[in-house]
Amino acid sequence: MISSVRGEVLSVGLDHAVIEVGGVGLAVQATPGTLATLRRGSQAQLHTALVVREDSLTLFGFADADSRELFGLLQTVSGIGPRLALAALAVLEPEKLRIALSEGNITMLTQVPGIGRKGAERLIIELRDKVAALASDDGGPGPAEAGSGAVRADVVDALVGLGFSAKQAEQAVDKVAGDVPDDTSRMLRAALAVLGRKK
């Protein structure tokens, strides 16, 4: 899993940007809002999600980790692929999307091209509790224990993708979760440092 990219912006298109990382130009699909923050020739850092298909590898970029988490969460619903998930984030900001899901606002969700009433109802049924759990400040696990479940899962997935076993990855994340901010890139760096010391 490629969790972030940082480098010079080589070009900005209508639906993607090309960012040079280590001499390689990576095409990153993104929302118009994210693309509007990028300038050709300037340095940029994006949180990313790599979507693997039989015939393609597509990198999706986001201005913040919250958007990336929602992007992944949306795709857990049947019928919602990466393009539709990105469209949802293009139309609705992360906070508005969370509110629409948690409050069951079908009207707001159907503003997204490709999501009809039935699709909106399915999103609400499947994601309402998950969104509430992520956003809840009480009744759930504390900050150190939660490490926002989605952030912890992202870091574990990234470590497994780098060749560590699931057990090693989970132990490393458990060790650093209470000591670092609830941010994927920082938690990943801290976990890698722990795993590096074990070698």
TrEMBL record:
Main location: cytoplasm
Region annotated Domain III, chain positions: 151-199
GO CC term (a single one): Holliday junction helicase complex
Pfam families: HHH_5, RuvA_C, RuvA_N
Swiss-Prot/TrEMBL keywords: ATP-binding, Cytoplasm, DNA damage, DNA recombination, DNA repair, DNA-binding, Helicase, Hydrolase, Nucleotide-binding
Family: Belongs to the RuvA family.
Keyword presence, ATP-binding: yes
Gene Ontology biological-process annotations: DNA recombination; DNA repair
Gene Ontology molecular functions: ATP binding; four-way junction DNA binding; four-way junction helicase activity
Assembly and oligomerization: Homotetramer. Forms an RuvA(8)-RuvB(12)-Holliday junction (HJ) complex. HJ DNA is sandwiched between 2 RuvA tetramers; dsDNA enters through RuvA and exits via RuvB. An RuvB hexamer assembles on each DNA strand where it exits the tetramer. Each RuvB hexamer is contacted by two RuvA subunits (via domain III) on 2 adjacent RuvB subunits; this complex drives branch migration. In the full resolvosome a probable DNA-RuvA(4)-RuvB(12)-RuvC(2) complex forms which resolves the HJ.
Compartments, as annotated in UniProt: Cytoplasm
Function: The RuvA-RuvB-RuvC complex processes Holliday junction (HJ) DNA during genetic recombination and DNA repair, while the RuvA-RuvB complex plays an important role in the rescue of blocked DNA replication forks via replication fork reversal (RFR). RuvA specifically binds to HJ cruciform DNA, conferring on it an open structure. The RuvB hexamer acts as an ATP-dependent pump, pulling dsDNA into and through the RuvAB complex. HJ branch migration allows RuvC to scan DNA until it finds its consensus sequence, where it cleaves and resolves the cruciform DNA.
Entry note about domains: Has three domains with a flexible linker between the domains II and III and assumes an 'L' shape. Domain III is highly mobile and contacts RuvB.
Keyword DNA damage carried by entry: yes
Protein name: Holliday junction branch migration complex subunit RuvA
HAMAP family named among the record's database cross-references: DNA_HJ_migration_RuvA
Domain Helix-hairpin-helix DNA-binding motif class: 72-91, 107-126
